[in-house]
Amino acid sequence: MTSSDIKTIKFSINSWSHLYSLEQAILRAEQASGRSLSIAGKIRNESLFNGKDIPISIHFYQVDGTPRYEKAGQHLILGHINLKDDHLVCSLPVDERVFEELRKNLMEYADIDGIHIMVTLGLLMPENGWLKNNQADIVKLDYAMRGDA
């Protein structure tokens, strides 16, 4: 598998959410412990989807220790993204250090006027192409802050 096998898609984060409830954290309820973070955006005019705009949601959840990532050749598989009902969705485990860095950057930059957080995903596509209700492997997830030009 070479880097030419990787399909790159980009989107700007439109919204993000980070739920934290002290009461839930005390009771150790994972769903509201502050250990999850979600981002949402829209992939626009992508040939992979016949030029159709596709909403995307990525849910990060913090795990203890380093997640066990599968490998595809020389690439780590960070997770899998699914195309369901014309919407891309995925849930990715990350360690505490990565989670805190992501959370800090989102909280610091996301609400500044003129700053856009751009996400780039590198995907290993299924051999038969992307069919409705199947998944692709995520081998790259980068984000960068961009200002209005």
Short description:
The chain has helices at residues 22-26, 96-109; strands at 6-17, 36-43, 54-62, 70-72, 75-77, 79-84, 87-94, 115-124, 135-147. The protein is mainly beta and 149 residues long.
Would you mind describing this structure in some detail?
The protein has helices at 22-26, 96-109; strands spanning 6-17, 36-43, 54-62, 70-72, 75-77, 79-84, 87-94, 115-124, 135-147. With 149 residues, it is mainly beta. The strands form 2 sheets. It has a 7-stranded mixed beta barrel. Strands 4-5 form a two-stranded antiparallel sheet. A hairpin with a 2-residue loop joins strand 6 and strand 7 (87-94). The chain starts with 5 loop residues before the first strand and ends with a strand.
Secondary structure layout plus pairing:
Layout lengths: L5 E12 L4 H5 L9 E8 L10 E9 L7 E3 L2 E3 L1 E6 L2 E8 L1 H14 L5 E10 L10 E13 L2
Parallel strand pairs: 3-7
Antiparallel strand pairs: 1-2, 1-8, 2-3, 4-5, 6-7, 6-9, 8-9
Helical run tally: 2
The pLDDT mean sits at 82
Sheet of most strands: 7 strands, mixed, barrel
Helix content: 10-25%
The proportion of strand residues reads over 45%
Name the poorly predicted regions. Answer: none
Rounded to the nearest angstrom, the radius of gyration is: 16 Å
* Beta-strand segment tally: 9
Elements, N to C (H/E): EHEEEEEEHEE
What is the overall silhouette?
Answer: globular
Structural category? mainly beta
Q: Give the distance, in angstroms, between the N- and C-terminal Cα atoms.
A: 37 Å
In which order are the strands of the major sheet placed? 1-2-3-7-6-9-8
